[in-house]
Amino acid sequence: MQIENIIKSRINIISPKKMRIALAIIISVLLAMLGKHAIGAVTQNPIKWHPGHYVTLVNPGKDSSRYMAKVYSELETYSALRGITIRYRWSELESQKDVYNFTSIDKHLAELAERDKRLIILLETKSFKPDEILAPDYLKDAIYEGGVFPFTGSGGTVPKGYNIKLWNKAVHDRLAALIRALGKRYNSHPHFEGFGLQETTMGQPIKPLTSTQVNDYYKNLLSINQWMRNSFPNTMTYQFTNYPRGILESFINGLNEIGTALGCPDIFLEDPGLLFKGTKHSRRGIYSYYPELSGIMPLTIQVEKSNYENTRHDRKGYQPTVQELLTFARDTLKVNYIFWTRSPGYFDDVLQMLNQKSQTSILSGGLDPTCPSNYASCTN
After folding, report:
1. Given its phi and psi angles, is residue 244 left (phi above 0), alpha (psi -120 to 50 degrees) or beta?
2. Which of 34, 256, 280, 353 has the smallest number of Cβ neighbours within 10 A?
């Protein structure tokens, strides 16, 4: 859309009128041809579209046959569960440069296809443990600036985890290469439903970043989303988005133009930052964008263990019911997909909720099944 608007603005200053018309015809043909290949074009292909409820695995998860047997039993018992979401670390899928290992994905996808259930992947590049790095070791080379940076949660010098240096073009290009390889292998698979990225918040870097590094980080994150759409032209792609609030409006507009789904990594029913309505001096929170984008772009959200436990990130709220979480996601945020984390002590309540008539009466489990307008079409 940005390309088209720029070209139109140039045409409008050309005269005479016949020349403008002739140029407009030529440009429209070129745009039609370019739309098939341009990374940033809003998707013009039918998208596999199976909105509803998905279960997100936790440890030991995907690597335990005993655990997976329970998951598959639940999928077969509760019809409202449309599939599973699996987290994969970047280093799991690419241990060495251009050496990919998709064996685990192949195995789970085959097992899900047998049951007519679907797979969604969340690619992890950011860790939340001080001794854990999720990027492959080869990114330690100088060309990648060491690949990762430590961040903290509340100041100080003790790492809370590590995030990738996405402002670095070489890091960006390696992540794009992985996504291209995944798209080539799985885009056409009818049971591969979605592929997405972790939250937008960088974490507070222990070593302060320059404004250029921060700007390039988010510019490159949008570029990676463009690569996802280009690599998965028939598959729902999504970006978990939460902070910083200052970039949300332009960033979400970019996702919409690309054709990427808007996601959020949490449902906190009373969190002031996520619910913030905005002022003249401070931008609004992520939840305020959801209702106005309903029917326009795909909407996803994840329910984490901490969301089952409290209505606020700072834990100053109360423990919500699963029904409250569903109602907020369905009626307030108007999401198409919910990823329910399979947290012990809480997921049994999720299963009971999914067995209710309001979730079993339609395939989307009571969630909005409308094909969004930034998709040319959807296929069920």
Report:
1. beta
2. 280
At residue 52, the 3 state secondary structure works out as strand
Residue 37 has pLDDT above 80, yes or no: no
Distance CA 52, CA 345 (A): 22
**Segment 103-133, tens digit of pLDDT:** 999 999 999 999 999 999 999 999 999 999 9
Q: Which residues contact 153 (CB under 8 A, 6 or more apart)?
A: 160, 203, 204
Our measurement of the distance from residue 117's CA atom to the centroid of its chain's CA atoms, rounded to an integer in Å, reads 20
Give yes or no for residue 9 having a pLDDT over 70: no
| Residue from 227, 125, 124 nearest 181 by CA | 227
Residues 47-379, CATH architecture:
Alpha-Beta Barrel (3.20)
Measure the CA angle with vertex 114, ends 110 and 119; round to 5°.
55
Please tell me the total number of residues recorded for the chain in this structure: 380
Helix or strand run (H / E) with residue 360: helix 357-360
What integer pLDDT is reported at residue 156 of this predicted model?
82
Average pLDDT of span 367-378: 96
Q: Closest Cα partner for 296 from 85, 52, 42? A: 42
Distance CA 48, CA 371 (A): 10
Domain ranges of the chain: 1-38, 47-379
What are the angstrom distances between the C-alpha of 146 and each of 100, 165, 238?
21, 8, 27
End-to-end CA distance of the chain: 27
Single out the residue of 342, 344, 334 nearest to residue 364, CA to CA: 334
Q: Which residues pair with 66 in a beta bridge?
A: none
pLDDT digits (tens, 9 = 90+) for 214-239: 999 999 999 999 999 999 999 999 99
